[in-house]
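Appendix B, Record 12. Input sequence as logged:
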Amino acid sequence: MSIRDEIKNDMNSNFMSIREEIKNTLSDIQSEIKSLREEQATLRQNVSNINIELSSLQNSIQFQADEHGTLKHRIDEIARVAGEQTTSATAGLQYRIDSLEQQARQTNVEICNVPERRNENLIGIIEAIGTAIRFPISKADIVSIHRVPHAHSTNDRPKNIIAKFNTRIQRDNIIAAYRKAKSLREKDDSPVLVIRGEDDLKKLRITKKK
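Logged structural output:
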């Protein structure tokens, strides 16, 4: 076996190991998101129970006129504390969920304005994009790929394509390769690659494959 083959085998072995680790990490993230959402649902139920208790106390006030002032004070205090705790806990959970979902999107690439065809090969489209920007992209580089339904059924534009790559480095290398291919940004009707990461959405333009 040649040195080149040995290097290639080592790279393939490392790639498979990295890909497996990424899949496991994504699975853990999804599990944690699910757990957080269940915890948030439980918190909301507890708040609902508190509201029921408050309503019951308010009805009792009508029959306890002499203790009206004391009971009302207790009810207001419970409502205030419950409201503060609920707001703080809900905000914290939502922040964690948003952070995890954002982390899961760090390797995504969104491609817009690619015409839809029956029985289309999305992998082939991504590979063609790689050829256009002189950065080879193979099926093994992609974790998943699909089109995203429109939010409104009246939208007649082609559905966007979301491709998730194995690593953020691969996604970043695609951006770097595109930036070097300046001639691909000259046409106004070219598709747009939208990169989702920690920052705001960044847009790239590439020419359509003829």
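Helices lie at 3-61, 68-104, 122-132, 168-180.
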